[in-house]
Amino acid sequence: MHANYVGLEKIVPLNSPAQGDQEVDMKRWFTAAVLAAIIAALSPSVFAQWPLHPQGVPKGPDGKPNLNGPAPRTADGKPDLSGVYIRYDPAESDGPPAGRSPLVKGGNAGAGFKDGLPFKPWAAELQKKRAASLGLNDPDGLCLPQGALQYHIDPQPIKIIQAPKQIIYISESNYGLRTFYMDGRSLPPMGSVTPAWHGYSVARWDGDTLVVESNNFHGVDPNNVAPQTLTELAYGWLDHRGSPYTEAMKLTER
């Protein structure tokens, strides 16, 4: 029988005279590795900081980022959305600006509407059950891909990578990854592609506004609103209050 010690080249029989020396060397090697790890952990100035790299963010006279400044532009003159973002909910005591829907509040996509979202009876009942269960089968809590609007709701960083023919949307929350095709293609007919957690998305510019349209989502089956598998229970969560949608949903984001 032989023992192979990690970090040592020589293989020696157990209980041989050389084994003791090998064990001492092993302890020294292990101690050195632990010390190296501790030094790395205690050196944030060297290991814990990402290098600074200016991104062309507009700044005010005080040198701070001007969040109301003009967006950077791509070579074709369109807004360049590339960057890292995080959710910000300003107070809107007078309601949303004209032409824009209310902000999502408290994880509820219908909170800003007077009568909530216009559910069908079966969907209204399912939403109440989901809300009463305190998010038991919310895909977020199950570490599954979330509904498209849930990524906008979560207070997690979002990264956008913009290219001429597509935009990549990456959320730190459950590593949500969406692709918006911008090559002029149309949405595929319903059922012509395999449904996906984030659907199938195409995008276009309306002036300086990016318009994203999506369909072919994993959704709730109205004929089976209480499936047996966790994956199917997590289908069709528009928000964290459990607002349901079916595979027939067509989502437009601006």
Short description:
The protein is an alpha+beta fold. It contains 5 helices and 9 strands. The strands form 2 sheets. It has a 7-stranded mixed beta sheet with strand order 3-4-5-6-7-8-9, with no helix packed on it. Strands 1-2 form a two-stranded antiparallel sheet.
Give the biggest beta sheet: 7 strands, mixed
Oligomer kind: single chain
Q: Domains counted in the coordinates: how many?
A: 2
- What would you report as the Rg, rounded to the nearest angstrom? 26 Å
Could you give the topology of this structure?
Layout: E1 2-3, E2 12-13, H1 17-41, H2 44-47, E3 83-85, H3 121-132, H4 148-153, E4 158-162, E5 166-171, E6 176-181, E7 200-206, E8 209-215, H5 230-233, E9 251-253
Parallel strand pairs: 6-7
Antiparallel strand pairs: 1-2, 3-4, 4-5, 5-6, 7-8, 8-9
